[in-house]
Design a protein that fits this description.
Blueprint lengths: L12 E2 L1 E4 L2 E9 L5 E11 L6 E9 L6 E10 L7 H8 L8 E10 L5 E10 L3 E2 H10 L6 H20 L2 E2 L8 E4 L4 E4 L6 E2 L18 H4 L8 H16 L9 H12 L11 H18 L5 H10 L10 H5 L5 H5 L2 E2 L8 E2 L8 H7 L3 H4 L5
Parallel strand pairs: 1-7
Antiparallel strand pairs: 2-3, 3-4, 3-7, 4-5, 5-6, 6-8, 7-8, 9-11, 10-13, 11-12, 14-15
Bound molecules: adenosine-5'-triphosphate.
Adenosine-5'-triphosphate binds next to strand 5, strand 6 and strand 8.
Protein name: Protein kinase domain-containing protein
Pfam family, one: Pkinase
Family: Belongs to the protein kinase superfamily. CMGC Ser/Thr protein kinase family. CDC2/CDKX subfamily.
Length: about 375
């Protein structure tokens, strides 16, 4: 469960407009110290608009002279009493691979009909690049995302997922535009918790969410008993996209999405499938050959890794901690530097193994295989 720490509630602010894109908020909460204060907000270029809210590059100030920032403000319309899991996650989980919330405020604005729209405003650290734009940078220039970078970003996404999944929360919309990256430092952070769900044993779960290209087969089939493993599937699609430069499976609807998946994985197995070892070995060999053909410049171990991620059967799809211990990441455990795009100066890899007590608990027996060996 999330820690009980709460920031004081805010009252919906009137946004006192002072000039273009520049207004005053009299009740803004700092996440660092839970204190409320009055602040000026200046909104600049739109980064979103997403499907659920708008995201703008913004600056904050105590006096309208010196400005702090840039920040990214995500504004979502939500009824004032509604619980927001997105806010709960952003407020309570501090993690190097999840975007950081710096301030929060509520606001309301009048509609043409004289009604009020209530809005939650998340003021986050601003990270201008996404994995999507980074993939495009490489492929538009006729090159490929280096394997080491693929491993670096994948490991950090898994680390963020490990924390969410250990709280039984699935992200629900993992895709390259929701991975913010700082290419010069090799850092990746997951953003957009607007589709996140807390999975309960007998709770009603929605099945229509997650962008189609990244939607797990169990969601495409409308199965209600899915798990946090849906995010692992999405991650597999993201890795495939880093390798190929375009979405791995591009269906126009749920059925054609399943058809696209079947081109790599074969048809969905029937439950009565023969589980004999001999048949399983043959199927594995066939799949391995297919994966080698689809991802020609990957090494043997890298293909083995993908075979643990893009799996129909959710109990055979490896979870975050198991994947983090895979040999796929040995390159990160044994090396110290990477070469950022467009640079010929190697840069220190970011901190990847400084696990918190919560993460160590989540990793359990896998911890010792994940951290680099002591020299
Ligand atoms: N902190 C941030 N810094 C920079 N860009 C951000 C930040 N947060 C989000 N973005 C960008 O804004 C886009 C939209 O934000 P977000 O995904 O949270 O909104 P959404 O309404 O859920 O959108 P979508 O339906 O596209 O996922 C993101 O995909 C990302 O590219």
């Amino acid at each position: 469960m999330l820690k009980a720490k709460q920031v004081p509630g805010t009252t919906p602010n009137r946004m006192t407009k002072l000039e273009d894109e520049h207004y005053f908020i009299d009740d803004i909460v700092s996440i660092k110290n839970c204190q409320k204060s009055k602040m000026f907000v200046k909104e600049g270029k739109r980064i979103g608009p997403g499907s659920f809210g708008t995201v703008t590059q913004s600056y904050l100030s105590n006096n309208s002279i010196e400005w702090l920032g840039p920040y990214a403000i995500k504004r979502v319309v939500i009824s004032p009493k509604a619980q927001s899991l997105e806010l709960e996650i952003l407020q309570n989980i501090k993690h190097p691979n999840l975007v950081t919330l710096e301030f929060f405020f509520e606001s309301r604005c009048a509609t043409k009909d004289g009604e009020y729209l209530y809005q939650k405003n998340f003021v986050m650290e601003y990270i201008p690049q996404t994995l999507s734009s980074e993939i495009r940078e490489y492929f538009d220039n006729g090159s490929k995302v280096p394997t080491k970078h693929i491993k670096l970003y994948t490991f950090q996404i898994l680390r963020g997922l490990l924390t969410l999944h250990s709280m039984n929360i699935c992200h629900g919309d993992l895709k390259p535009t929701n991975i913010l990256i700082i290419p010069s430092r090799g850092i990746a952070k997951i953003c957009d918790f607007g589709s996140a769900q807390r999975l309960k044993d007998n709770g009603e779960l929605k099945t229509y969410f997650c962008s189609r290209f990244y939607r797990a087969p169990e969601l495409l089939l409308n199965l209600k008993d899915y798990s946090t493993q849906i995010d692992i599937w999405s991650l597999g699609c993201i890795i495939g996209e880093m390798i190929k430069g375009q979405p791995l499976f591009k269906g126009d609807n749920a059925n054609s999405q399943l058809e696209e998946i079947a081109k790599l994985l074969g048809r969905l197995p029937k439950s009565s499938v023969d589980k004999s070892q001999q048949l399983q070995n043959t199927l594995h060999d066939q799949k391995f050959k297919k994966f080698m053909h689809w991802f020609p410049y990957m090494e043997f171990f890298d293909v083995e890794f993908l075979l643990k991620v893009l799996v129909y059967d959710t109990s055979e799809r490896w979870d975050a901690k198991r994947l983090m211990a895979h040999e796929f990441f040995d390159a990160l455990r044994h090396e110290t530097y990477f070469l950022p795009r467009g640079s010929n100066m190697p840069v220190h890899l970011p901190e990847l193994f400084n696990f918190s007590a919560l993460e160590k608990r989540g990793l359990g027996q896998y911890y010792s295989s994940i951290v680099p060996p002591l020299d």
